[in-house]
Amino acid sequence: MQAPSQTVSSASSAQMADRQHATRPAWLGRSSLRLLLDVIGGPRQNWDKLVQLVSLVLAFFRPSLVRSRLARLRQLGHIQELPTNSQLLVAARDQMMLAAAEETKVFYRSQGIPWVFHNVRRFLSGPATMLDPVGLFSPRDAIIHHVLQTFHRHPIYDVVLLRAHPQGEEEMERQAQAILDGNHPHQRALSSLIEDGSYHARLIHEVRAIRQDPYLPARPIPANLLDNPNLMIGMDQFKDLAGFTRYAARLRVGPVDALRAWLYAGWNAVIGDLLWLGPKDVRLDCCDPEIVAQHAQTAAQTA
Known about the structure:
By secondary structure, this protein is an all-alpha fold. The chain has one domain. 64% of the residues lie in helices and 0% in strands.
């Protein structure tokens, strides 16, 4: 069984950045050594990384913390469902391995960014930002660091997540402004990682817009962004936290399924190109019917 059926034409890959109005990152062309030094940081930066990582690991052993964050977001009206931890973990595998990672690979190719080396740098810059596939286990500053270091078509998912944390939105705006002002404590790393050269200038306005209207809908996925209908469905389903939790709540899984899903995910991340284990596409029966119908119709029209 080969890797997921997320095949995307080279033409579609090349056009992805253009269709999202992304510009080339300023750090492309620097030496590998300099790029590594950018993200390693000093004592202050590495202390921040350690605090975030410990907080994340502890949250994995505190299911009540995750439940309280979900309950807070439901109380605020951002989600309706309260998936179990098993449902969250299996849905997170689908979101990361079958949607986000494949979309990101296409985007990186369109920007000329090396996949493995760039992800190694992302890990060195903030390990906690790479180890929580759903965001509900992460401490506040790890979520913010993730938004600042990685291109987001629209940061609505993460800013809504921050509403479950004290002063989450305010701190997001403060740090986004600090990046623009050039005085963020992790300025060197974040500027050396962002995959779209114009991203930080846009981000502050998007964060402020979401703060003014926390119930702002997620920005629609551009039509025909990619030529893989299943990947488009996954991107659309997971574009906001409400869509993610709806998908998760429809899964019929338990702790054993969650363990198997992430054992397979680890295997696939290492040698999935040779032998892929587990599902290759997001589960259409767990996606919103209107999203499935929309992209199926688009695919039929362009066939």
